[in-house]
Amino acid sequence: MINIPETIKAALHLARKHGGKQGLNCIAELDKTAMKQAASLKANHAEQPLPLCGVPVLVKDNIDVRGLHTTAGSLALSDNVAAEDAPVIRNLRRKGAVILGKTNMTEFANYTTDDMPAGYSSRGGQVIHAAHPSLSPSGSSSGSAVAVAAGIVPMAVGTDTSFSVVACAQANGICGLKPPAGALSPEGIIPISITLDSAGSMAKNLTDTLSLYSAMRNEPLPPLAPAPASSLRIAVNTANTELVSEGQLTFLMQTVSSLEKGGAYTEHIRQMPTPYQRIIMQWEFRPHLEAYLRTSGASRKTLADIIAFYEAHPRKMMKYGITLLKKACDETPGGLQGTPYLEALEQRKNAREATVRKLQDYDAVIMTGPTNIMHFCGLPSLCIAGAQTGDYGVRRGLILYGADELRLYRAALAVEKLLHHTVLQ
């Protein structure tokens, strides 16, 4: 049986040793109640077995955890201490998880400026990749991804508007999941766009990633097993393959070849990115952020207040600019009734209907080149970490998405099994 206090004590030791500013700088804040949480679980575990009992979990710094700061990486929100857990965190506690603390992230989930380095924030500084400091930790769930990749915790929570979980997972050689739109409560999370945002899960393998996601839900996932490889129908999205490195593209094509040899049916399709996603983000950011701030402990309640703080402290806050904050404040006439925003929502509705119709015969789509179509349409997406490695030994990742959530997960479990039984050369 797991020794819960010792497990949490060990995780705290790793967090302090490797996660601080002298190390990977992935930890924003540790929870002083972590050992108390562990002791309570130890006392109650025999009476109430729980799926994540005693598992230490770190949480991205834009999600409310009671008693801890929620800043989205910005010093403008440094006085915001959460009075209550976000619903996804309450669910994790009910399933036995111990919240170890908060992780650093790209400031405002990478919605501060066009030039912000991935993993940088005014509160936390620069997150460092676990494998080598020359590698990008990606953004904006960089601290969560690095903490898992470094072995500080087995699981971490991130958020994803457009690739903040799945691309961070890929960059750090771990697994990550963005659920379908609306699957998890957005309450208690500093948003960019509630239409597009979702909390997501990260771990070193897909089974643990799905377990964490299941525990975040109001109702758990049903039992999942890998689909038979020979039954898989996989679409290969060849959009923008010219933007992918030669090593990554070779890995992707070898994976497709291995699937075909295992009996899977594959077919090439092209689903290009859309510019309308950025319009939704720009128009929703201010009203959705201010709705969060109104009920928060932050003294600054409007985007204009936050911008004024940046402009009043340029050396500390304006290192890379605030172009996106300014556009969201100054270039959204009509707000949630603005014509460009309403047109973008209509485009999203049409794109979702067309995409779901296009993908109904496939278990999953392999993304070969960058596209945001899955995020725009609110479809589930995930990253699997393969056996083949790239720079500095980081496992290469495969991003999948699909129209049907459970079919996608079963297909992804089958693909993960294939990748870990066949070390691709």
How would you describe this protein?
This protein is globular. With 425 residues, the protein is of the alpha/beta class. The model has no long low-confidence stretch (mean pLDDT 96). It starts with a helix and ends with a helix. Strand 12 and strand 13 (395-401) form a beta hairpin. It has helices at 4-18, 34-44, 87-94, 142-149, 166-172, 206-216, 246-261, 276-294, 303-312, 314-317, 323-330, 339-359, 373-377, 405-421, and strands spanning 27-30, 56-60, 98-103, 120-121, 125-126, 155-160, 175-178, 198-203, 233-237, 265-269, 364-367, 381-389, 395-401. It is 38% helix and 15% strand. Helix 8 packs across helix 11 and helix 8 (276-294) crosses helix 12 (339-359). The strands form 2 sheets. The chain has an 11-stranded mixed sheet with strand order 1-3-2-6-8-7-12-13-11-9-10, with helices on both faces. It contains 14 helices and 13 strands.
Would you summarize the structure shown here?
With 425 residues, this protein is of the alpha/beta class. 38% of the residues lie in helices and 15% in strands. It has an eleven-stranded mixed β-sheet, with helices on both faces. A two-stranded antiparallel sheet has the order 4-5.
